[in-house]
C-alpha cells in the first residue's frame, strides 16, 4: 500500500514509475571529424556512403551537438546499419533521429534474429525520432539496427542508440498532452496531436501489464479486459519523443 501511494503521489508531482534504462550503444557522432567515413567506424552501408558532417562547416543542422551522419545513396535503395550482440530475454529500445532534406521515404528497422521490426515510415524534412522496442528471444542474440531509405535520396542520422529496458525507476515526464477517453467498459481511446509511438500501461504499484509499440496513429484504442478494477497509469510516447503520463480507472 505504501509503494502504491508513493507511485500515485509521484504522478501528481510530474514523476512516474517507468522502466529504468541502460544505454547499450550510443553514437551522436561527436567523437568524429568532419568528413570521416563511417564504414570504417563499425558501421556498414549498402549502395552509398555515410560520412560525418559538421553542421557549422557544411551549413546543415545536427539534432544535438555539432555533428551528424550524412548518408548519400548511390542506388535505388540504401541502408546504414550497426551490428550488435544482445542478451536473450532482455527488452531493448532502438532509438534514432532521422530526416530527409528532400522529404523522401525512409524508416528505422531492428532486425532481431529472423525478425524485422520496422518503425513508422518517415518522410520529414525536420528531425524525427523513431523508437522500436523489442524483446530478444532464444537464439536471437545477433541483432542489426539499421536505417533504410528509398528512392535515391539523402538521409541524415543523429542520436543512434540502443537502450536496455530494465527495472522500474523514477523519471521526470510531462503530465499534459494526449487525451484519454473511455470508449466502452474496460476500453479506452488515446488521442494525440502527433502519431503514437508506444503506450505502456502500469498498475498503481508500477507493474507493467500492457505495452503497444509503434501504434502509428493519432488515435489508439486499447482495453483492460481481464485486468483487475482500479487505477492504472499510462505512459504515452509520440513519434517526436514526447512522453506523457495519464491515469485511468478500470471498473
TrEMBL record:
The keyword Disulfide bond does not apply. InterPro entries: Galactose-bd-like_sf (IPR008979), Secre_tail (IPR026444). The keyword Ribosomal protein does not apply. Coiled coil: none annotated. Residues 185-249 form the Secretion system C-terminal sorting domain. Keywords: Signal. Residues 1-20 form the signal peptide. This is Secretion system C-terminal sorting domain-containing protein. The lineage of its organism: Bacteria, Pseudomonadati, Bacteroidota, Bacteroidia, Marinilabiliales.
